[in-house]
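Continuing the series of single-chain predictions for the mutant panel. This is the parent chain; the variants come on the following pages.
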Amino acid sequence: IDHSKILTRNVKSDENIETNSNITKVQSELIQSHDIKFSENDIYNLNDVSEPGPFDHCDEDLSHIGPNITPTYNFAKFANESNTIRQLVNLGVELYKLEANREVLEMFLSLDFDTDMKPYIQFLHDCGVHSENLGHFITRNPMIFKEDIDDLHTRIRYLRAHNFSVDMIQQIVNKHPPWLSFKTKEIDWRLGYFQHTFKLSGVQIKGVSTKCPKLITYDMKRIRRSTFAVTKQMGFNTFETRLILLNAPRVWIRAKTEVVKTFDYLHNDMKLSHDIISHNAKVLQCRKSRLERRHRFLVELKRNQYDPTKPLYVSPLNLVIGSDIDFCDKIAKSSLDIYNNFIKSL
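Parent structure:
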């Protein structure tokens, strides 16, 4: 006799008896509390809930059920549902550059293109932002739609009142879209700072603003550090500093350490005076490595003559502008192959 089988049957029998007892107890409680009656046939049905199997055919509509959606800032998800997103794409807005900014995403989805955005687009068009440049403008300054439209008109009127021409305003707005998001008082203070610090005339401050509007709205701490570097570390006087600002304002935006490296090479290795550097200020915007390669090639060819009072003069600007082909052909009077081989030998 297989005692293990007998033991198993006895255990199962005990489990069934216990289960039936529990069901009977539940029925008694329901009858007492809710006056619910059960037939004898229902006893085992309570423990035999009819659930579909994994391979059973399902006729129920489950279209409303989907995976748990985690927070997303991807504009593509809303392209089919949002007319605003589609219109922004048509304008050329580079939405992928803005996806990391949740505030921008939520703003775009909350705005109606026709009623909320078109007045701003019309304003930008009136300011000289051409249709082909609208996408670039909005990409650079999407929060323009959060500005009060009357404030924007006031900021343009301020520039006109200070004799900025229509063409100047167009250049400022197109070159540096964030300008319009600065309050009038802030712009006025910044223009005053540059005019006072560098002793600029009205014409000169307008020229700097038009040539490099980003400079006017740049981080003032970095502006002051760059000014210190130009005047104290590099040793340019007031006149030379003003000359650099007027002709190469991006020197104040470029990393200070890189500007100092370039100046050090120009002044100590190439032996250029402060006067020559300030009159060729854009050389300070060049990477030291590019400047060094070209200068050393001219030294090899004995053509490194940077004094404008002597024959065979080579303007320092010619070392930093143009392609390598132009440099070799017009300045070094050599071939590109010879120049490339020289660079490899360094």
